[in-house]
Amino acid sequence: MNWVTRVRNAIPFIAKRETAETLWHKCKGCNTMIFLKEYEENQSVCPKCDFHGRIGPAERFAAIFDADSFTVLPMPRVVEDPLKFKDSKKYPDRIKAARAATGEQDAMVSARGTIDGHAAVVSVQDFAFMGGSMGMAVGEAFIAAAQEALKAKCPYVIFTAAGGARMQEGILSLMQMPRTTVAIQMLREAGLPYIVVLTDPTTGGVTASYAMLGDIQIAEPGALIGFAGQRVIEQTIREKLPEGFQRAEYLLDHGMVDMVTHRHELKTTLARLVDYLTAGKKAA
Fold first, then answer.
1. C-alpha span between 267 and 52 (Å, rounded)
2. Is residue 100 packed enough to be buried (19+ CB in 10 Å), middle (13-18) or exposed (0-12)?
3. b/e string for 34-68 if b means 16 or more Cβ within 10 A?
4. Which of 49, 76, 124, 205 could form a disulfide with 159 if both were Cys (CB 3.0 to 4.6 A apart)?
5. Is residue 96 pLDDT above 50, yes or no?
């Protein structure tokens, strides 16, 4: 950036010029250049090849909940750097950078609202926040959302997207696996539905815990879902894995998920499932 541009951008009354980065989006599926506004209005799904891009909590809540029906739940407080971890950067610095980039406190955001008139608590993992990694904050957010569902006697729906456990929290991140499993068991004992929507990517310790324990398992088209990476598995078993291995459609064919649902149909599908699982009861 030259000095002229720096001075120009610093003057508040001169509008910044729109660039290719702000006007167009390049599809990762077919490499087609798409008008950004059109792409966002299509819920970040490519109109050419149907590739499902990654979206955050705000976009997800707007697409799933009824208009003006949801309230974001407060984020539980946790110790932010329990191990005083440092690699090329300090862990607190990474958290600050992720918060600045996403506007969220951590990798999971929860809200309570209605889906086609049915009360529900919905949590969304944001892959943009440190790869959606599961640390103590995510574990606490999951448990708080489950408790909110228990209090409201309504279903709990979660959209997963994660690279796995958060390495900067070591064993404390792995402890969230049994803790979230206990919360799911509490929902089951109360007779409340727990529905999982697997989005791209869902891997590691998240897959090994709450992501695969739903009463109903839904996946978005083309989502990468697995525990270890394909290259690691191939090196371990010394065999070439089949085409599409660990993708949503492959898991559907092999009984690992119940359905693969297009993003445009998710709200209708969830509303129908909640209606079935709650005997048609709607929010008061």
1. 16
2. exposed
3. beeeebeeebbbbeeebbbbbbbbbebbeebbeee
4. 124
5. yes
Kindly write down the DSSP assignment for every residue of 171-232, as one continuous string: HHHHTHHHHHHHHHHHHHHTT--EEEEEEEEE-HHHHTTGGG--SEEEE-TT-BB-SS-HHH
- Band of residue 279 on the pLDDT scale cut at 50, 70, 90: confident
pLDDT of residue 212 exceeding 60: yes
d(CA 263, CA 44) in angstroms, rounded, equals 9
Model confidence at 14: pLDDT above 50: no
Tell me the C-alpha distance between 120 and 148, whole Å.
9
Structure token pair of residue 173 = 């991140």
Residue 156 has pLDDT above 60, yes or no: yes
| In the chain, alpha helices (H) | 3-10, 20-23, 36-41, 57-64, 91-102, 136-152, 170-174, 176-189, 204-207, 230-237, 248-253, 266-277
Is residue 159 within 8 A of residue 210, CB to CB? The reply is no
Q: How far apart are CA 284 and CA 272, in angstroms?
A: 18
Contact (Cβ atoms closer than 8 angstroms) between residue 202 and residue 182: no
Q: Which amino acid is at 61?
A: F
DSSP state of 134: B
Query: Comparing 37-51, 95-109, 228-242, 254-268, which segment has the lowest mean pLDDT?
Result: 228-242
Question: Parallel, antiparallel, or unpaired for β 33-35 and 24-26?
Answer: antiparallel
Under DSSP, is residue 79 helix (H, G, I), strand (E, B) or coil?
Answer: coil
One-letter amino acid identity for 249?
Answer: E
